Sequence to fold (345 residues):
Amino acid sequence: MSLVKLSVSALAVAAASATAAAARDQVQVAGSSTVLPYAAIVAEAFGENFDFPTPVVESGGSSAGLKKFCEGLGENTIDIANASRQIREKEIKACAENGVTDIIEVRIGYDGIVFASDINGNSFAFTPEDWYKALAAEHYVDGALVKNELTTWDQVNPDLPAQPIQAFIPGTKHGTREVFEEKVILQGCEDGGYMQAMLDGGVDEDMAEEKCMAIRTDGRSVDIDGDYTETLARIESNKDGIGVFGLSFYENNTDKLQVATMTGVVPSTETISTGEYPVSRPLFFYVKKAHIGVIPGLKEYAEFFVADEIAGPDGPLAEYGLVADPDLATTQATIADENVMNGGS
Fold:
């Protein structure tokens, strides 16, 4: 391991608190609930494989994590912010106002989910609107919210098979639930004009969004809080079932599952990483360069997170649902060279 050269700002942190390393020898991370499961996997493996304490990883959301990240430098501030979106200009400015000027942006991969069913069953070509209509607890009809009574996919869309609606979706504790709700259910509600109809009918915007994403509880949709093997088992015992999976899990089970298109796009590493496939987004974490060399294990943790054996297509993060970044080598070089964002100084 090469010696880490302290930046001027890092030296300032060390000078301001000569006991910083002694006072805190654990990397501290906060932010996105979507990134949390991946970060927890990495933190545990890091603690087992390196001579550093296991990093402390907390959730709270992307915005909350970045707010904490931008509070300043020093042992009383976090080292890394996890985010399911890129840092915003106003957040970069808030960071700079508090002395956090050198920020390393790390893209860990993509949060992409696919819809798959029994390999010997019907094939499906979905849109987000189809999933909203199938799974919404209520539909807004003639100025009122009414219970969703649809029971088969052809009732949702006449171009779909006459197959009972039986969906196995990520549970609320799962890292992919958020992308499912936002990129599929809410998007479908908006695409079909149902969100706008509620707003036009006098429904408050927050309430309209809440109603869009409320999932039916009559057994047509089942939350799966376990891993994708549980979802697969459900489909094997119910051939009408359609499950939500991470891309890598599907690709490892193509002998049992067939994948559906979404808005005409076949999910793949390429279509997910380019954003062509609509049910995906890049995931990030942000590192304070000034803390490298001051907080023990910080750079090592960041490098470990994006190592091929961790964040690559055959690593544990892919098994959980992360779509590996085809450009992972560039990210690895960014951390190795401690390259900061353009917003840094």
Remarks:
- Residues 177-191 form the longest helix (15 residues).
- The two ends are 26 Å apart (CA to CA).
- The first strand starts at residue 28 and ends at 31.
- The chain has two domains: 8-110+282-336, 122-238.
